[in-house]
Amino acid sequence: LLLLIRNPKDLATSFFHFSNRLAILPSYDTWDDFFVEFMAKRMAWGCYFEYLSKWNKYADEENIMTITYEELKEDRAVGVKNIAAFLGISLTEEQLQLVVERSSFQAMKKNSQKTHGAFGDILFRKGAVSDWKNLFSEDQNEKMDKAFEEHVGGTKLGTKLKYEVYCKA
Q1: Burial of 73 (0-12, 13-18, 19+ CB in 10 A)
Q2: How many other CB atoms sit within 10 Å of the CB of residue 107?
Q3: Which helix H or strand E contains 66, and what residues bound it?
Q4: What per-residue confidence (pLDDT) applies to 9?
Q5: Cα–Cα distance, 31 to 144 (Å, whole number)
Q6: In which element (H, E) is residue 68 found?
Q7: How would you write the pLDDT of the chain (169 residues) with one tens digit per residue?
Q8: What is the rounded CA–CA span in Å between residue 52 and residue 39?
């Protein structure tokens, strides 16, 4: 199993935009309205912190590889190599480069009409890291940090996310 996790702040930012673009999900008039609901664990697919806590129980199992979105954005080639090795797939340099090119956010967004139809416009927005800084107030940032620490701060997944987000930023 490949477990892809993401900075909770960017996840919330992305989900805010996703929710407002997909008619079957609740939409929010403001980021502040969304943030209150997110922190109160009233999201369509549940609480991300609880999701991470549940997966943390399996983080050390040898058949599970955890990788962060931030790792892949930083160096997709290394990420692809690590994923291929984990899955027992041998890639030539040419194959590696092809996967790296085709798995860029820009390439997937450009091809999204073919791969996802009309849903592609909803699914592929920015693909950025640290976009949360455009929405979060200082108070919201502190609340999210506190919730992160309470739920997953000292766990393996929490440590991995914290390192990727705070130490490499």
Answers
A1: middle
A2: 12
A3: strand 65-68
A4: 95
A5: 14
A6: strand 65-68
A7: 999 999 999 999 999 999 998 888 889 999 999 999 999 999 988 899 999 999 999 999 999 999 999 999 999 999 999 999 999 999 999 999 999 999 988 887 887 788 888 877 777 788 888 899 999 999 999 999 999 999 998 898 988 887 666 555 5
A8: 15
Residue range(s) defining the domain that contains residue 26 = 2-165
Could you write out the DSSP letters of every residue in 121-158?
HHH-S---SSGGGGT--HHHHHHHHHHHHHHHTTSHHH
Contact 152, 11 (CB under 8 A): no
Domain tally, the chain: 1
- The CATH number covering residue 11 comes to 3.40.50.300
Residue among 91, 86, 88 at smallest CA distance from 65: 86
Please answer whether residues 109 and 120 qualify as being in contact, where contact means their C-beta atoms are separated by less than 8 angstroms: yes
The amino acid sitting at 86 is: F
- DSSP label at 30? S
Cβ neighbours of residue 165 under 8 Å, at least 6 residues apart?
7, 9, 70
For residue 83, what pLDDT is reported? 97
pTM of the model: 0.86
Q: Which two tokens stand for residue 75?
A: 């160096």
Q: Are 52 and 152 in contact, with CB atoms under 8 Å apart?
A: yes
